[in-house]
């Protein structure tokens, strides 16, 4: 996904910009570019492929090396193919103004026609180039400053943007603005670093200013002014980034994904941290205190998210109905605003998002609030847009998740959903002894995940036997049906093996036709009320010579009779099972991707954070 970096200070801007872009590489991109002001003009270098390509070009350019102010970008193509011309920065007609942009200018066709009628010649197929010409029009048409021209241009624009703009007539100034795409300004000593993601800032400073939608900043060597895009001054607080650079790095593992899988015991401890009051045996969620009365009064819950977060929402549906007895629905965030869902002031809408920046989830959240719902967030990235736009929420505290495949965010989402469901359940009907059991069981979960992780070698051996098979099925029931979906998603997104996840009983209604000799079928089959039924499903696959891999409860030696392989997880109450049963599936996907030589952390066509619709 696109990334922005900007720098003004005493260091060589090019180095800071390139390093910053490298820190954003994990988000996924297809081309990159830098623009540095040399003292006389803007100097731009762009390339497709890796940031290293741009670095090589920039290193060979003396003007670029000399500058101490500039902007840079990694692009993930939306309008126009990934090539050098479409890469950012984009300039106006005489290359005096350069713009980098994240987001989508929705009315770019209309604006392009208008600008073309005034003689503008477009070089690229992008929506962003429209912005550089539009700003230029206002600049040349009497705007008093670059920021005034930017404001005038943004008034004409509909869509989303995080932008950084420089102009050679106003050296040593960067104008930034945001609407719908994150932008953060790092405040160092005698320097400012602008970025769309804290990862590009943290090695320079932990002091940051988060811009809100419709806000902008004018940054010079003398300081920073913040205002709305309508030019109303706003005072912004300097906040501290919580994550260290070391946390963001791989920590000795070959891949971020493996590091994040292995970090799950600690991540879950962090998610639980201070929230289980074992003295009074109650759940304490500080982020929900101000809305606690509304929560208890809620008539229904709608959980929404995308991808893995949507799977966590599906588990949440079981948790909320089972533990809190509240009618609960799950909606794809991407569908929410287009299907006129029934939401009112008795509805509690909970948006789940690791990044807190997923465009569809944010749009669903806004729709829900507009319709009068109380909106909560279950978010990992502190200070992200979704976190800031909800009425209240609970952070995952899972630490940064860099691998494109979401792993620890999923388990922590389940933990936080369980905490909310328990808190509500206890206030509504749940007895204290039942509450006590769940709370005690939750405290055991981190150590139980550790035991599952110890079987990574076994999972690798099992996967090695089947990794050449191009079609896999994942089947589960009840709480473990969403886990089956998540297992299939993990496998397909990083190993490119086709996989389907299904409720096990659905198999007979069609997918059983797929089963043939040697096809790997993964059953999530821990002890639960439908255990006998899932054994029946296993038999059906066995009869058709599928190869069966089961995830089962420790001590269930009997299941081995029906299966080719068994991976055991510790026993725990059924509502907590998904937190354990998903872990072998994450390891399965990881080992399959490594065995097939895939780029585990940056799978093809995928971005970590999908900030466009
Ligand atoms: O940052 P979010 O949790 O909002 O992201 C949602 C999905 O884009 C994300 O979970 C995606 O499905 C991952 N690639 C799954 O591993």
Key terms:
single chain; 613 residues; alpha/beta; Glutamine Phosphoribosylpyrophosphate, subunit 1, domain 1; Rossmann fold; 3 domains; eight-stranded antiparallel sheet; 20 helices; 22% strand; binds 5-amino-5-deoxy-1-O-phosphono-D-mannitol
Description:
The chain has 613 residues and is of the alpha/beta class. The protein has 3 domains: 240 residues, 4-Layer Sandwich (Glutamine Phosphoribosylpyrophosphate, subunit 1, domain 1); 193 residues, Rossmann fold (3-Layer(aba) Sandwich), CATH 3.40.50.10490; 145 residues, Glucose-6-phosphate isomerase like protein, domain 1 (Rossmann fold), CATH 3.40.50.10490. The chain has an 8-stranded antiparallel β-sheet. α9 runs antiparallel to α16 and α16 packs parallel to α20. The structure holds 5-amino-5-deoxy-1-O-phosphono-D-mannitol. The site of 5-amino-5-deoxy-1-O-phosphono-D-mannitol has 16 residues, from α11.
Q: How much β-strand is present in the residues?
A: 15-25%
Give me the CATH fold name of the largest domain: Glutamine Phosphoribosylpyrophosphate, subunit 1, domain 1
Structural domains: how many: 3
Alpha carbon gap, first and last residue: 12 Å
The amount of helix comes to 25-40%
In CATH terms, what is the architecture of the largest domain? Answer: 4-Layer Sandwich
Rg value: 26 Å
Structural class: alpha/beta
Chemical compounds bound to the protein:
5-amino-5-deoxy-1-O-phosphono-D-mannitol
Overall residue-averaged pLDDT value: 93
Instruction: Please tell me what the overall shape is.
Output: globular
Number of distinct beta strands: 26
Tally of separate helices:
20
In the CATH scheme, the class of the largest domain would be: Alpha Beta
Query: Which oligomeric state applies?
Result: single chain
**The CATH homologous superfamily of the largest domain:** Aminohydrolase, N-terminal nucleophile (Ntn) domain
């Amino acid at each position: 996904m696109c990334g922005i970096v900007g720098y003004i200070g005493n260091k060589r801007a090019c180095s800071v910009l390139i390093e910053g872009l490298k820190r954003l590489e994990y988000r996924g991109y297809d081309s990159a570019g830098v623009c540095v002001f040399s003292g006389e003009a803007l100097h731009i270098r762009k390339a497709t492929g890796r940031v290293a390509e741009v670095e090589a070009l920039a290193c060979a350019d003396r003007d670029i090396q000399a500058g101490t102010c500039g902007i840079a970008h990694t692009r993930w193509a939306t309008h126009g193919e990934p090539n050098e011309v479409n890469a950012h920065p984009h300039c106006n007609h005489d290359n005096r103004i350069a713009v980098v942009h994240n987001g989508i200018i929705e009315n770019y066709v209309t604006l392009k026609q208008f600008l073309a009628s005034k003689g503008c010649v477009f070089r690229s197929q992008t929506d962003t180039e429209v912005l550089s010409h539009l700003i230029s029009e206002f600049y040349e048409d009497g705007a008093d400053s670059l920021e005034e021209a930017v404001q005038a241009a943004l008034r004409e624009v509909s869509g989303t943007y995080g932008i950084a703009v420089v102009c050679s007539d106003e050296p040593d100034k960067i104008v930034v603005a945001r609407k719908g795409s994150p932008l953060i300004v790092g405040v160092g000593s005698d320097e400012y670093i602008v970025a769309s993601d804290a990862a590009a800032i943290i090695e320079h400073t932990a002091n940051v200013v988060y811009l809100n939608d419709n806000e902008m900043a004018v940054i010079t060597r003398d300081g920073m002014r913040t205002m709305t895009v309508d030019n109303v001054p706003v005072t912004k607080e300097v906040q501290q980034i919580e994550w260290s650079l070391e946390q963001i790095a791989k920590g000795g593992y070959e891949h971020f994904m493996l590091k994040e899988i292995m970090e799950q015991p600690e991540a879950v401890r962090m998610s639980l941290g201070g929230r289980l009051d074992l003295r009074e045996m109650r759940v304490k969620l500080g982020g929900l205190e101000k809305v606690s009365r509304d929560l208890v009064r809620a008539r229904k819950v709608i959980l929404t998210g995308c991808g893995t977060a949507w799977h966590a929402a599906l588990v949440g549906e079981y948790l909320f109905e089972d533990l809190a007895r509240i009618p609960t629905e799950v909606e794809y965030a991407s569908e929410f605003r287009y299907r006129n869902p029934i939401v009112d002031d008795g509805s509690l809408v909970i948006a789940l998002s690791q990044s807190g920046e997923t465009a569809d989830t944010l749009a669903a959240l806004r729709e829900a609030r507009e319709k009068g719902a109380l909106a909560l967030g279950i978010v990992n990235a502190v200070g992200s847009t979704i976190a800031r736009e909800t009425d209240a929420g609970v952070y995952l505290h899972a630490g940064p998740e860099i691998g494109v495949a979401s792993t620890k965010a999923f388990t922590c989402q389940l933990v936080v959903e369980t905490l909310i469901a328990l808190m509500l359940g206890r206030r509504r009907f749940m007895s204290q002894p039942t509450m006590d059991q769940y709370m005690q069981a939750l405290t055991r979960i981190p150590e139980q995940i550790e035991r599952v992780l110890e079987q990574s070698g076994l999972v690798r051996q099992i996967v090695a036997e089947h990794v050449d098979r191009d079609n896999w099925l994942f089947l589960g029931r009840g709480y473990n049906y969403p886990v089956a979906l998540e297992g299939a998603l993990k496998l397909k997104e990083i190993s490119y093996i086709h996989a389907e996840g299904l409720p096990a009983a659905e198999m007979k209604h069609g997918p059983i036709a797929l089963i043939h000799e040697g096809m790997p079928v993964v059953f999530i089959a821990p002890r639960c009320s439908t255990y006998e039924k899932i054994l029946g499903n296993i038999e059906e696959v066995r009869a058709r010579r599928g190869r069966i891999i089961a995830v089962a409860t420790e001590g269930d030696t009997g299941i081995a009779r029906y299966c080719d392989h068994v991976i055991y997880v510790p026993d725990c109450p059924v509502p907590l099972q998904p937190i354990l049963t998903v872990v072998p599936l994450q390891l399965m996907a990881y080992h399959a991707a490594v065995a097939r030589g895939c780029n585990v952390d940056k799978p093809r066509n995928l971005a970590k954070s999908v900030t466009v619709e």
